[in-house]
Every structure is written in structure tokens, then in C-alpha cells.
Amino acid sequence: MTLGRCHDAPLMGAPRVRRGGGGWRKRAASATVVAFAVAALLGGLAVPAAADDPLTEALKRKEDLARAVALARANTQRYQAVAGQYQAVVNDANAKIADLAAKADDAQSEADEVYYQIQIAEEQLALVTFQLDETRALADSLKAQAAEEEKQLATREDLYARHLRTTYRQALISPLEMLLSSSSLTEFANRLQAMIFINRQDVQLANDIRALRASTSAKQDEASSKEKDIRGLQDQITNTRKILAAQKDHYDQLVAQAQAAIDEQQSVRTGAVAGRTSAQSQAAQSQGATKDLQFQLDNAEAQYAMLAAQAAGNSGLGAFSGRLVMWPVRGPITSPYGPRWGAFHNGLDIAAPMYTPVVAPYPGVVTTVGRPYLAYGDTAVVVIIAHGNNFATLSGHLDDRHYPPVQVGQHVNAGQVIGYIGMTGFTTGPHDHFMTIMNGRAANPLLYLP
Question: pTM of the prediction?
């Protein structure tokens, strides 16, 4: 909670998410700048600023600490935002790795399946090669048999030719001449029987020759047909194996590409995890610094409360109880009392047109007029009025061209003009930042306004 200063604009906006490869480095550099700013501000706290009175000095120190707390909180938020962005990179890398791993598994499964098909094709090729070798051996055997049969056929053809010649010569002799030329009937019978036997042998020999020729030709045709079929099957399997080998090479390349992409994503993830860990560590350190600063701020506010109570006690007024008699200015409340922008808004923002008069909401003594925080960059013009030895009000962002027409130590009445609506200090529009301070601590003005 911050007292005595008009807080109507955030000290630091929420970190924006940047895209691009250099975003992390830029955010880290920005966070480092913020850290240096906090360190410089804390270093400035070691040297108390000159002040006209202890209350003003306490207010300035409290204001310094409030700024340091706001910067430290903003710094912590930046580190947390960077850690969150690194975590998003980790999550994205994990998702990509999972997707690539699934693709790699699918490609590996396809490659394995093709590999098995190649093994089957190679076994088939080996079997067909064996069959081809056997067929070739059979063909060679058939050729040898055919050659032997050719010799037998030549012998039988020669024998058949001799028989034909003998038969031809015998055919020239009539049976009567054979009988007359025989010395006896027995010789004639033997010669006739030999002739019949030769004729029968010729018929058998001719049949054997025809069968042998047909068998030899059929065996040769069968061997040639088998060899041709096996050669065709061998060519088919060889081509199939080439196609399968090409498919396996393709799937192997897919697996290799997926693995390379996985390695790349793992490298990205490793870097992001390191960045996230570093950012989380820095955020933790910044949170620790914020706690220390908050502790100092609480102490400063306690000191301010004591000094404010002392100043109110020295105002010569009695104790305040009850409620204010009027509003300092009439208009819509654009920002209520309470948490705002990750901090705490210690008053009411009451909007009104520029130069609208602002009045004292209750009789009292003016304790502050002007810019008490100018040395720290806050140009807001404020008027603080003590309405009792335990209660005061503050109006801020008053116009500086129509300067407040009151002075420190002046007694004012309820309804008396103490300033005019302006836009001095940190503000986004004309309004009165109205505070109520009870026992040195800011309180909700709605508890005291009529």
C-alpha cells in the first residue's frame, strides 16, 4: 500500500510476447536493465534526500521504496513471463518431438516390413536360383541322354538301312526262285523264316526310332520350357527386390530425417529448459528482493504513519470522528480504492472537466501544498489538509497554471476552494486523486464521504 502519492498510471506495463529468434535475448536484456534500475534506485535509498521536515523526508523515502517495489515486481513479472515463454518453447518442442517420433516409428515400421519382404524375396530368389541350377543340370542330363539316344538312333537307323537293303534284295527273288535255289525244303523254310523275322525286326526298329525321336524332342522341349519359366520368375523376383530395396531406402531416409529433426528439437528444448531454469532462478531472486523492499516499505509507512500522526497532533486540532461533510468534487469514480494493475490504489479517482474547482471536504489546516515528490519524477500538485490530530485528506493532480490558492498552515472551511482539476503527474485524464489518511494510513474514502 502506498501513501502520499497519486498512483493513477502503471509504473511498468506487462511484458509483451515477442516473436523471432532474438526475442529471448531482448527480453533477457530488458530484464537486466530493469534489475540495474532497481539496484540504482536501492543505492539511492542509502543517501537520505534533503527535506524541509521529517514528514516530507519520510514521504520521499516511502515513495522511493514504493517505486523500488513496483520495479522489483515488474522485474519478477518479466522473468516469470520469460520463463513462461521458455516453457512454451519447451512444450512446443515436446509436441514436435512426439510428432516426429511417431512419424519415425511409422517410417521404421514400414522399413521393417519392407525389410521382411526383401528377406522373403531373397529367400525366393535363392530357391528359384537353386531350381534354376537343378533345371540346368537336368537339361544338361537330358542333353547328354539325347546325345546318347542320337548315337543309338544312328546305330538303329544304320541297322534299319541294312535291313532295308537286305529286304530289297530278297524282294527281287520270288518264292519260286528261292525254292528252286534251295538245296532242300528245310533250307527254303529257314530262308523264308529269316525273311519274315527281318521284316518284323524292321517294323519294330522303325517304331523304336520314332519313339526315341519323340522322347528326345519332348525332353529337350520340357527342359527349355522349364529354364525359360525359371528365368522369367528369377527376373520378376529380382525386379521386385530392387523395388523393395528402393522403398526401404526411402523409409530409412525418412527415419534419418525424423531423427535429425528430433535431435534439433531436443537441442532447442535443452536450450529452452536452461533458459527457463535461469529465468525462474532470476524470478526467485527478484521475488526475494521484492520481499526485502516490501519489508522496508512497510517500515517506512509505519514511520510515515508515526510522523503523520505527529504532524496532525501538532495541528492544534482535536480528534476527528464521524464523516466528511461534502465531496471535494463531483463526478464519476473512474478508479476505486483497492488493488489495481498488480499494485494497490490508495484513493478514489473522481473525474471532472479541466479547471473544475476542488474544495475542502471538511474544515482543517493545510499541511502540504505543491509538488512534494518532484525530485523523484512525480510532478503531481497536491494539497493535504489535516482535519484532526488523527485524520487528513489529500487531493492530487491539481492544475499548476491555476495554482492552489491556499498555503501551508492556513485554516480552511468546508467548501472552500483549495485547487482546480488538472493533469499534473502520472495521469491519463483530468481528475482528482482523493485520499483519506486515518492515523497515518490510507483508508477507503467511501467510509468517510457523505
Answer: 0.43
